[in-house]
Amino acid sequence: MTYPSPTDSIIVPLDVPTPLQALALLDQLPQVNFWKVGLELFISSGGEILKILQEREKRIFLDLKLHDIPNTMAGATGAAKLYEVDFLTVHASAGQGALKAAVEAVGPSSQLQLLAVTLLTSISNRQLAFELRVPLELPEYVLQMAVLAKDAGVPGAVCSPQEASELRRVCGEDFLLVCPGVRPSWAQAKDQRRVMTPREALEAGANYLVIGRPITQAENPVEAWERVVAEVQ
Fold it and tell me: What's the CA gap between 47 and 227, in Å, rounded?
């Protein structure tokens, strides 16, 4: 597998509620090449923000976490493919039938790559057991979801960096791993439970790192970006 350059490996979330606020971040951080658009901004702006990013020649991670029956997953994925983004998330827990339907909707000629969400990084082992009633330890469950997705033809997964090394070992070098829950050594974890520093996550096998608030909510976002890039390098 060819790993991206340090700056291209960092995905910054546009976790703001309006296109106007998103534009302010884009203007403030022109150095960022890869942006994530999540549910809040996508619902408020539709495809408008995606067009803006494409006009600025940015890569796009559309983080919609699709989770539905196979027919709906196929239709939604086919519709999302028309946006010509780079990554689109689906929940692995939707099951192999739904994942296969999404893969078929993407087709072999699209630039779009699906990523299976294994487990939200805000979920702890205790929550998995007592709230979600899953009779597996957290690392075992994440690995099971990643293997399920790989067997369905999904080319990559979203996982905590703490599970990245095992997923890399089992799923192979060609399986994309995108890791949220990454916090620079100088930043607080806040609501993320399973975190690592950027360097630790890359050494564990991550291809891409999702790093948001330490950059976008810093007093000086440009300086914070440069510190993160230096830490990755």
Answer: 32
DSSP state of 3: P
Helices (H), 10-60: 19-28, 39-45, 48-55
| All domains in the chain, ordered by first residue | 10-232 (3.20.20.70)
Contact between 232 and 197 (Cβ < 8 Å): no
- How far apart are the C-alpha atoms of 87 and 110, rounded to whole Å? 11
How high is the mean pLDDT of the chain?
Answer: 93
Task: Tell me the pTM.
Answer: 0.93
Query: Longest C-alpha distance within the chain, in Å?
Result: 47
- Concerning whether 150 is annotated as a catalytic residue, the answer is no
Cα torsion angle, 100, 104, 107, 110, sign:
negative
**β-strand pairing of 208-210 with 176-179:** parallel
Distance between CA 87 and CA 31 in Å, rounded? 20
| pLDDT tens readout for residues 174-229 | 999 999 989 898 876 555 555 789 999 999 999 999 999 999 999 999 999 999 99
Question: Which of 36, 51, 58, 65 does the annotation list as catalytic?
Answer: 65
